[in-house]
Fold C4-dicarboxylate ABC transporter substrate-binding protein.
Amino acid sequence: MGAAGLAGLGLAGCGPRKPPFDRLVLATGGVGGVYAKLGAAIAAAARAQWHIPTTVLHTGAAVDNLDLVAAGKADVGFATVDAAMLASDGSPPFHRRLPVAAVAGMYDDLMQLVVRADGPIRTLAGVRGRRVSVGSPGSGTELIVNRLLRIADVPADALQLHRWGAEESARALRSGRLDGFFFSGGVPTPAVAALAGHDPGVRIVPLDSSVPQLQARYGEVYERRTLAHGVYRLPPVQTFGIHNLLFTAADRSAASVAALTRLLFDHRADLVAAHDEARQLTTRSAIETYPLALHPGAEAYYRSTKPYT
């Protein structure tokens, strides 16, 4: 679809137009996380360009966000592709198929098991019997950790288990109330970076050996990744990553979603200023949204920019 097609969606031409949204509600994640920072940047762009009110919801993240958008309580949200796959199938923790569609593939999260440098946890199996946070309720982190524990044959009741986000977990680790915590997110994760610079210090536990079993059981949405030395000034660690999406309701109008997609790229520099992970966003990478299909409005925008060729 070229300029004529975009004109048909109300995205070409010069005259004043009705904003594509009356207001924009974004379902993000925990305060200070990458979802929240990028959501705030998108909200600011919408206010500046469309002169509309916006709301950034701080949530448990992926699972919560899919429920909120499907229920009409948010217009757009962020989710990991493993959670999106379950939502599209109507598999637990979802109770039905959720009618959502992708706006853009955004960036890759890295799975991190963060432990005290002076503590006993050195492997995934080493969390047994320890005080460990598995992520916020309704988060993509919690979904992945449940899968990791099954693979490691560590039942949840074998842990002294907490369900906290990154910031609360980091505070508990530093004060000695936790032995470790899991977090899947963009890097550097601010809460982890703050820990790395203070006593007692932290280690990141390698998790890459779990990838073959994760892929065999849950699909190839998980891929080996390296947490590089420069991220936290710690030795490089082999782990795995999971892709993130920005998504919306499948029945939202093509014109409004095309306008939202254009907003992302018109204000890409603002997203990068909010968090460096937004550098991964290009019109070519954005169409990589498996297992969710692109919304027709987003697809129209990308076809106009030629990422398919």
